[in-house]
Amino acid sequence: MECCRPDHGYTHDSRAVRFLFEVLSSFDAEQQRLFLQFVTGSPRLPVGGFRSLNPPLTIVRKTFESTENPDDFLPSVMTCVNYLKLPDYSSIDIMREKLLIAAREGQQSFHLS
């Protein structure tokens, strides 16, 4: 967890940040590669792993209108700066599902978020 920079609503102690690292550690090698490609635009980490990402992986809270449910949304990214906009999902299972959907479906696409 020290290899990332939580910001804009998240800290290292935030439930969503803890969930994220639990989910990532449960992914198989292919799922990890897809996630990495989704977040950074590259299927491989630099020598030294996440600690060597430049800029570092930044995880921020994706915000919504007060009437919207974060569980209804996918995470989004800014790959040029390794920036993950992560909704505060209600459970680790929902986060896992949404991360996999975003990583699989978000390959080779570009959308404004």
Automatic annotation (TrEMBL):
<dbReference type="GO" id="GO:0016607">
    <property type="term" value="C:nuclear speck"/>
</dbReference>
<protein>
    <recommendedName>
        <fullName>E3 ubiquitin-protein ligase</fullName>
        <ecNumber>2.3.2.26</ecNumber>
    </recommendedName>
</protein>
<dbReference type="InterPro" id="IPR035983">
    <property type="entry name" value="Hect_E3_ubiquitin_ligase"/>
</dbReference>
<keyword id="KW-0833">Ubl conjugation pathway</keyword>
<dbReference type="GO" id="GO:0061630">
    <property type="term" value="F:ubiquitin protein ligase activity"/>
</dbReference>
<comment type="pathway">
    <text>Protein modification; protein ubiquitination.</text>
</comment>
<dbReference type="InterPro" id="IPR000569">
    <property type="entry name" value="HECT_dom"/>
</dbReference>
<dbReference type="GO" id="GO:0006974">
    <property type="term" value="P:DNA damage response"/>
</dbReference>
<feature type="domain" description="HECT">
    <location>
        <begin position="1"/>
        <end position="113"/>
    </location>
</feature>
<comment type="function">
    <text>E3 ubiquitin-protein ligase which accepts ubiquitin from an E2 ubiquitin-conjugating enzyme in the form of a thioester and then directly transfers the ubiquitin to targeted substrates.</text>
</comment>
<comment type="similarity">
    <text>Belongs to the UPL family. K-HECT subfamily.</text>
</comment>
<dbReference type="GO" id="GO:0043161">
    <property type="term" value="P:proteasome-mediated ubiquitin-dependent protein catabolic process"/>
</dbReference>
<keyword id="KW-0808">Transferase</keyword>
<feature type="active site" description="Glycyl thioester intermediate">
    <location>
        <position position="80"/>
    </location>
</feature>
<dbReference type="Pfam" id="PF00632">
    <property type="entry name" value="HECT"/>
</dbReference>
<dbReference type="InterPro" id="IPR045322">
    <property type="entry name" value="HECTD1/TRIP12-like"/>
</dbReference>
<dbReference type="GO" id="GO:0000209">
    <property type="term" value="P:protein polyubiquitination"/>
</dbReference>
